[in-house]
Structure formats: structure tokens, C-alpha cells
Design brief:
With 95 residues, the protein is an alpha/beta fold. It has a single domain (2-94), classed as Leucine-rich repeat, LRR (right-handed beta-alpha superhelix) (Alpha-Beta Horseshoe). Helices cover 15% and strands 13% of the residues. It has two helices and four strands; from the N terminus they run βββαβα. Strands 1-2-3-4 form a four-stranded mixed β-sheet, with no helix packed on it. It starts with 11 loop residues before the first strand and ends with a helix. Keywords: Leucine-rich repeat, Repeat. It comes from Endobacterium cereale. It holds the Pfam family LRR_4. InterPro entries: Leu-rich_rpt_4, LRR_dom_sf. This is Leucine-rich repeat domain-containing protein.
């Protein structure tokens, strides 16, 4: 994913159903508004803290594979989870 690091004007990105496990290369995509990580191997969401414009995060069934997150959220069948800036991302990361 290293080539993505330079695409700082990127607004929408789908990594759905890929072997991606690390979101760190995305932390400089400051204009990213919509991210789809359904079916990935991502377990660390902290790089999302660096994305101030992120509004939509598609997680989907991936939560059911992460018991720590699945237990704190009523449904594991989330589609587009609406986020409102850094505060919402921080709240999600605490769940």
C-alpha cells in the first residue's frame, strides 16, 4: 500500500476483501472521506485518528471476527457507519 501514501487528495478508497492488515500507510491521506475495509485483516484502527475528514467507514462483517469490538457494538452487520470527524473516530476506537 506504500504507493497510496502520496495520494493525499484521495477522497474515497475501497480495500474491501483484500489481504490488507495495516492501515498505517493511509494516515497521511488527510482528504479521505470514505473508507471500505470489509473483509480485510485490519485489527488496529489507530491510524484512522490522523484522518480528520473521514466521514464514512465501512466495516461490515469484519467486526464479528474481532470479539473486543463485536461485544461493545450491538450489531456486527454494520454497513456504512457515519463518523463525524476526529471525535467520532476516537469514540469508535474506544469501543
Amino acid at each position: 500500500m506504500a504507493p497510496l501514501e502520496s495520494l493525499t487528495n484521495l477522497r474515497v478508497l475501497s480495500l474491501a476483501h483484500t489481504g490488507v492488515s495495516d492501515l498505517t500507510p493511509l494516515q497521511d491521506l488527510i482528504n479521505l472521506r470514505r473508507l471500505d475495509i470489509v473483509g480485510t485483516r485490519v485489527t488496529d484502527f489507530t491510524p484512522l485518528r490522523h484522518l480528520p475528514d473521514l466521514e464514512q467507514l465501512r466495516i461490515g462483517q469484519a467486526l464479528s471476527e474481532r470479539p473486543a469490538y463485536g461485544q461493545s457494538i450491538e450489531t456486527t452487520d454494520l454497513d456504512w457507519r457515519t463518523l463525524k470527524g476526529r471525535e467520532a473516530i476516537e469514540a469508535f476506537l474506544r469501543e
